[in-house]
Amino acid sequence: MIADLHIRNLGVIAEADVELSPGMVVFTGETGAGKTVLVGALGLVLGDRADTSVVMGDRADVSARILVDARGAEAERIASAGGYVEADGTATVTRTVSASGRGRAALGGAAVPVSALAELGQRVAQRHSQSDQIRLRSPRRQRESLDAFGGPELAAAAADYRRKYSDFLAESERLRHLQEERSHRQRRIAELGDGLRRIEEVNPGPDDDHLSESIARLANAESLGQSLAHALGALDRGDGGVLPDLTDGLKELQRATGIDPGIGQHADRLAEVEILLRDIDSDLRRYADTLRADPRELDVLQQRKSALANLQRAFGPTVADVIAWADSARGELERLEGADGAESELLGRIS
């Protein structure tokens, strides 16, 4: 409740202190005595909009002490605004209005916006007059009054309804967004599907990194065969070569080792060289066995290389980039296609 009121330079009131006692308080007086100004002063500390036409001089000041429950919601609101509630449970509310229209408000000693006074005023005072009660024509006010009359049980049902209605609005907004994005989503699905079909037709893999080497080997199979034949002949010909001569030399050194053991280390090193050369000879012969001139296979590989080049231009500079794009596209496509299901599910929930 409001304990007292101080007014200065407001309307016909130069200065007045009004102490309000418990119970019913009645203000009476002749027309022009200041009853309306007094009610206006109460309105200012309760957060009403200021009327500068009633300001006397440069500014008008109104203050009031409001008695609140020191442990109640009003005291918490004052404290959250930075204000202070006295030990006796009172908090001071002040309002200053200048003739120019500027003003200040304070709650419990802390500067606050006027809206903070209005919020507190709605909880500590109810004003009844011909113009105030027109608010009951508002459907929102009617619902609030009816809900308040229903007590805790109806309040719980109303809170549950508000929660469900809030969920309904959120899901309706999500559905609207999905519906608005449907055409874009469908274009993106078509774009991703087309790209994946192109990639899956070629089916690139890690082995494609060596495709150029395979093409070069097939295109130059005859030249490679001639080079290998020459190298193998130099290593081991029927009428001589490195390996037969090396074997003969190794045998001679091994015999000489029986005379001079110091030669044995040279014989061992030569034996290692012989093993290495025979391994090279064996590897080259295996490689030569794989060489073949196959124009049809060469054509297939060249066509694949051309198809991969088209994919690389569209989806990445390397084969690995193309594969990564396909993996990402599959995930995005799954999400986009799932949006249609989400749209149907939302329609079912809110309809």
Description of the molecule:
The protein is an alpha+beta fold and 351 residues long. The chain is 61% helix and 12% strand. The protein has helices spanning 35-45, 73-80, 114-124, 139-180, 182-202, 211-219, 221-235, 242-257, 264-290, 295-315, 319-350; strands spanning 2-10, 13-19, 59-67, 90-98, 103-107, 110-111. The chain has a six-stranded antiparallel beta sheet with strand order 2-1-3-4-5-6, covered by helices on one side. Strand 4 (90-98) and strand 5 form a beta hairpin. Helix 4 runs antiparallel to helix 11, helix 5 runs antiparallel to helix 11 and helix 7 (221-235) packs antiparallel against helix 9 (264-290). The longest helix has 42 residues, at 139-180. The radius of gyration is 49 Å and the shape is elongated.
Can you give keywords for this protein?
351 residues; alpha+beta; 11 helices; 6 strands; 61% helix
Helix and strand pattern: EEHEHEEEHHHHHHHHH
Overall average residue pLDDT: 83
Number of helices: 11
Low-confidence stretches: none
As a percent range, the share of strand residues is 5-15%
Question: How many angstroms does the end-to-end distance come to?
Answer: 48 Å
Layout of helices and strands:
Elements: E1 2-10, E2 13-19, H1 35-45, E3 59-67, H2 73-80, E4 90-98, E5 103-107, E6 110-111, H3 114-124, H4 139-180, H5 182-202, H6 211-219, H7 221-235, H8 242-257, H9 264-290, H10 295-315, H11 319-350
Antiparallel strand pairs: 1-2, 1-3, 3-4, 4-5, 5-6
Helix pairs in contact: 4-11, 5-11, 6-10, 7-9, 8-9, 10-11
